[in-house]
Design goal:
Layout: E1 2-11, E2 14-24, E3 32-36, E4 46-47, E5 52-58, E6 67-72, E7 76-78, E8 81-84, E9 91-97, E10 103-111, E11 124-127, E12 134-137, E13 144-145, E14 167-170, E15 175-176, E16 187-194, E17 197-205, E18 210-213, H1 224-229, E19 236-245, E20 251-253, E21 257-261, E22 270-274, H2 278-282, E23 285-289, E24 293-297, E25 305-308, E26 317-319, E27 327-330, E28 335-341, E29 347-353, E30 360-364, H3 372-375, E31 377-381, E32 384-388, E33 406-413, E34 423-424, E35 428-435, E36 440-441, E37 445-450, E38 461-466, E39 471-474, E40 482-483, E41 488-493, E42 496-497, H4 505-511, E43 522-523, E44 529-531, E45 550-555, E46 564-567, E47 578-581, H5 595-609
Parallel strand pairs: 4-11, 13-21, 22-24, 23-29
Antiparallel strand pairs: 1-2, 3-5, 5-9, 6-7, 6-10, 8-9, 10-11, 12-14, 14-18, 15-19, 16-17, 16-19, 17-18, 19-20, 19-21, 24-27, 25-26, 25-28, 28-29, 30-33, 31-32, 32-37, 33-35, 34-45, 36-42, 37-41, 38-39, 38-45, 39-43, 40-41, 44-47, 46-47
Amino acid sequence: MTANMYAVTTADPTPTSWHRFTVTGIKPSPPSVGTINLPGTPADDNASVGDEVQISGYGFSSDAAKNLVRFGGGKQASATRYEGGMPGSHHGWIYVTVPEGTQTGELSCRRTDGDGRWSTGGPVLEVKPATVVTAELHSSYNGRYTGPRMASNGYWSLGGTEEDWLLQGTNFSKLRIWEYDEQTAGVFWLDIEYGGHTYSRIMRAVSDTVAVPHRNRGEQSMFPEEVFGDVPAGATVEIRVRGHELTNGYERTSAWAPVTIGERPYYGSMYELQAATMVAWWGASKTIAKGSWLRITPGQGASTQMLTAPGLWSGVLPVGADGVATRLVPLTTTGTYTITNQTSGESTQLVVADVGPPDGGRGYGSDTQRDLLAEGVKMRVDGAEIDVPPGAFSADDLTPVRQYFSIRLDHFPDTVVPWDSTLTNGGHLFSLSVTPEVTRLLKPITVTIPYETAGRATVPFLGMWDPDSKLYYDFGVREAQIDRVNHRITYVIPAGDYASQAGGASAARAAAAPAAGEPGLRAAPSGASRAAPPPGPPQGRPFNHSFRQVGAVSSTVSTGGDTYTWVSPRSPVGDDWGVRVDVVTDPASSSYVPPAKAQEVLDVAVDTWQ
């Protein structure tokens, strides 16, 4: 180092001249170390191995690598960054990473281009283990997010509101968000990554291992379930949590954890089981339709219950552990399962069937549930489903005294006696109705009707029972809409205009029994010809009579199926308009029709059609 200096020679009483001279070989003195990190806060004196420490002081080299820091225990590391203060002040900041093996102790610095001395009297850095945080969706969701507001998982939210969105992990209560409140523990960020975008929302620790959305703090524009709600079932997103240490400003993050988005439980598809009183709750056995969800709770005031159910879940399921009030179990496979409470010793059976026993039905929409018009609904009742898209109904149908829509899907036991005694609906009929009356359907509504295979000799058709004629009217559902694997028939109620019921009960009854060949419906007694026009809006019939007492109808004896079929040459490709004669082919049946007679009926029907 070189310095230019000046001196004055004097001869009393006045100076005589100035002299310039140069001194070489000067080595910089050790820096004067001031503070660590953020002075005057709890973050100024502690860090963990791997953290970057900010050190302020005077006399640092502007070349960061020439500043060497000695930590407690003798470990040394070079600075990686330098920031200068006010010009001419010689003040600045260096940044250095705490090396492995560092212990709590005084910090000292020296310059590698200096005189070799270390600074003294520096601040003490406390070295402490970094908080390790983990996070994933709570096990009550069985590793899959199911959708918002479908089941309670306990009274976690502020004000006693039931919460249904949980994380599980470690050290949640050891995090905070520096920007919001330096003092409040257990508040942290949840990051959700999907489609190349990351969405961040605030969570709140219930305990060190359970967290829920913080619904009364920070950004309120969107909560986690709303982000997940835009992701289709089967897709995978990733989540992680992050927050600052309680004693310093260092951010800790969990590893990214994948989450498979599961099917959302449909409204009306939840069935509760209280674990502590299983047999008293639903008896020795309970039958529930496939596609429903089992909602297991410990029971009022009960302690943690340990449950096993081979085939439904693996191992022992603790219900009530860590305050978790609910376990959601999707019922996806038919069969008989034994649920055993290992805590009490009692067991009960769960039978998962294609169709659940008739229990009256479900409704959606009320004075406090007014979102059907704007949001639509997906509802499942005993295996039957309805899917009403947003905006399916017209606001013009609302009345001054009824400013919201409600929809109901009813399930009735079979009490009908058809004209053709070989026809069966399996003991199940379903009806759909909307209040107020719908005169215009803006978007189609999808209805799915389940069926069981026992007692059926033919593939079912979707039929609507008419009590006057004792006939089923076939909706003309295409083969592609009959799921023979999962035993379901899907029908789309078409958009369009529907008649008003203002004509009274007699008009409604007449409308409920359309003539054979009406678009969308076909008269279907065994042995009769059945035309097959494409489905369309039923003409001249009120909406609430368009899907009334409907079931999956089959013959209990073998029939001719498509043997006696004629397809019109004018039929559009793929629609197969024409005539089919479905006859009983079992000679032992009282309804048996000889092949020649069946062909004769077909010929007459074709001549009539043409």
